[in-house]
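seq:
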Amino acid sequence: MSRTRAFTVVELLVVIAIIGTLTTVLTANLSRTKQRSRDAERKNELRTIRIGLESYFSAQSLPRRYPVSSPTPGPGTAGLVLDLSGTTNYATSALVPTYMFSLPVDPTNSGNHRYRYQFRDGGYQFTLFATLENSLDRAGWYNSSGVLQTATQVNGYQLRSEQLGGN
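struct:
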């Protein structure tokens, strides 16, 4: 009499449990990888906006200033924190289309995930920032002086970004 070999119920359950565990681990890693990818895109787009701001600054007559809300802001003044993601304001109007074809939009473009701009010191400096998804990334923001700041609040916005390098 011939016997057919078959898997027992216990063996099948063990295999299903292993496959379920592997799927859970891989899904979690994929999610973190997507977050890091979006954060890298955000940092790159902040660099692009910075180049547009530097081009604007270089093209201005003396005294050179970054885009400001009024023609002659006083020294030590700081402007409102502006949303650069799909809105029209004095900063976006100054950059597009002369210095940038269009302003980049955050990969998720929802909630606090937007690009923001603020002029400082009467338009002689600026701050650009974005909220990153990876909580392990260094806190701070990039400004026109090239200095990494480590405070976590500016005008009520939580800032998470890294120094973008450059000048």
